[in-house]
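Appendix B. Extra example for self-study. Work through it before the problem class; the solution is given directly after the inputs so you can check yourself.
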Amino acid sequence: MITLYDFELSGNCYKLRLLMSILKLRYDIVPVDFYPGRQHKADWFLKLNPFGQLPVLKDDELVLSDSGAILAYLAKKYDEAGLWFPDDPAITAEILRWHAVADDITATSSAARLVLGMFYDFDLEKAQKGAHRIFRLMDEHLWFGEREGRDWLCSPAHPTTADIACFPYVMLSEEGGISRQDYPALRRWTDRVRRIPGFMVMSGIFPAGRALETT
Amino acid sequence: MTLSLSDPTWYPIASSEDLPFRHVYQGQLLGRELAVWRADDGNVNVWENRCLHRGVRLSIGINEGGELKCQYHGWRYANRSAGCTYIPAHPADAPARRIENRTYPVREAYGLVWSSANNDIAFTPFPGADSADWFALRPMPANAAPEDVHAALVRLAPDDQPAELLPGLALRLDGTLYFVQPVDAGRSVIRGLLAGQPDDALTTLRHYNEILTKLRDRLERAAARKPAPTPLQPIFEKVAVDLATMPEIAIPRGNTMPVVVKRKWTSADGVIGFELAARDGHLPTFQPGAHIDVHLPNGLIRQYSITNGPGELMSYIIGVKQESASKGGSKILVDTVREGDLLSISEPRNNFPLRRDAVRSVLIAGGIGITPLLSMARFLDKSSLPYELHYFTRAGEQVAFRGDLEALHGKVILHTGLPRAEIASTIATALGEWSRAQHVYVCGPSAMLESVRTTAAAQGWPDEAIHFEYFKNDKVIDDSSSFEIELARSAMTLHVPSGRTILEIMRENGLTVPSSCEQGACGTCLTTVMEGEVDHQDVYLNDSEKRSNACMMTCVSRAKSARLVLDI
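Solution. Structure tokens for the complete assembly:
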């Protein structure tokens, strides 16, 4: 039985809900009041995850933390097709590279959102600038990807956990005052992610319109 | 140079490739944010990036192919006209038809999408535009003033081959064209065009991308050392009060427009199709279920439903029944009007609004009644909403618009040649028991309408879930009564004798009042009743509306009481 220790407004928790929804997994939720309750720093939670960070996922007796690590675990254990985290060494490296980018996006775009939405005391301007720097790189990568026939962050012809890991705090960037107007290829990629079968929404992340079906 | 909000120059605002189908691109020109989207017919729309409702960005809206839907409250705007076609939960279910979002001029050419702040000057291609097959580079946004970006591009030229300056912040550099899109006072996008398709497109793109990235980084470092220019301050015009408030359902007639009969064909046995096109540009926005008044060569005016789908505004397609017993309306259209002829039509009006918040919509058509329901089916189809379309005809040859019906993805069921008793049971099965948020729409002969109304009522469907449109009122009108009408707003009391209608008496006394069919079927002359008991003889109002005694059709209905007080 899978249990997710979850905060509804956390993009990192949403990553796991999103992949579990796509993989059609059943799971229980234990709500953790990250804001304003700061329950992720409570004693009972620190026993689960000494790093004091959401999300935490329990699969029977196994306790896991870090959203990127858990994405890899869920994909390797439950995605029988092996598409979301392929075994190929080069692709694994590519995906882990983007998992690291996802952490950078959390440290910038998500931090800006925490300042504006949850009154955290971070350097807002620095966070916003950092997010723009990453988004520029992503836009360039995705723009050339479109020219090369690649729709996703990594080279396979289908999305991987890299796309899931990077998606939420790109979509929530406006809540941190970071416009995506200058990143048209990044915006088109978010449309594609939102059209993955099994996609689910969270507060602030809307569904995309359906793609044009040619019959 | 100082940037101006009203600068009429055409600038590129996107690459063609930025606008895949069903995507909304977020752009900006001279401080104004733009929602740019390509409809399924290929047309590119450049609109002010805000929903008229609450100013939410339309670039986060949904491109449904023929309409753009605001994600927050579901307001919809049509391809080409930007006219608002749907306002959810609008009290009368009838959006204000004339609400339109602000649009900007657009041209797609040379791999780029061009726009300008206003329509003051026509689009003129840059010098030599038609001499090459242009190849667009990756656009490069830069946080730097447009004039600084332009100057920096000019400086890229070697001394012995200076850049050729072109109008509109553009330049030619060794065969490559660069355009600076003035996003705002301190922001720009560099858009480049190469003459001809390169042999190795990717290598070429990466090469120019590297040059422009370095240029951008230099420009941004320089810009960071200067005080940031004040951003342009566009003024957003508010929607006029009369447009933002609830419109009257009956909109006075008057405005007509000429249309060309572009095509006339036999759509089915007894049904003639007419395609009516504007002489120039597009026709006004319409809603599913809307009709137009067609002014016929013999002076008669007849209503025909528009069969088109969402955002199809280049022409209206109507279906006309070929009736031997026709009173001369449809007959003259069918017999004498030919392709190429000009006709006068009204703006579209809707007495048959479609709700798009239903969990299930049942559409029931009899014969020529398919026309408004075809339009509804197309809207529901495009929005991927669940619906069933039941189309009853006497024979298979009478199925009109067959090809259009086959192109729909929803459930379309043809019922051909059923005996009368079986029609009733088929309707009963099609409807099923009512549950919340189900709606039925019916258009066809009176007998079928009555059958649907009684069957639906028997199966628990409330009046407000049953929507119907009569094409004519078959009832015999009893005009033997005589009574007084007091017109509250006009401060007049008039006598209506037997044999005369309220409408006629009001007109005789100098009042301008809207009407259309004048047989109690179309709803145009709907009037609020303040006092008195109405003798309803129309087929437009439903039973609960009639019982409410709060409104009436002045063209056929009369008074049971000695006096009626009307809100006119």
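Self-check: The two ends of chain A are 42 Å apart (CA to CA). If your reasoning did not lead you there, revisit section 3.
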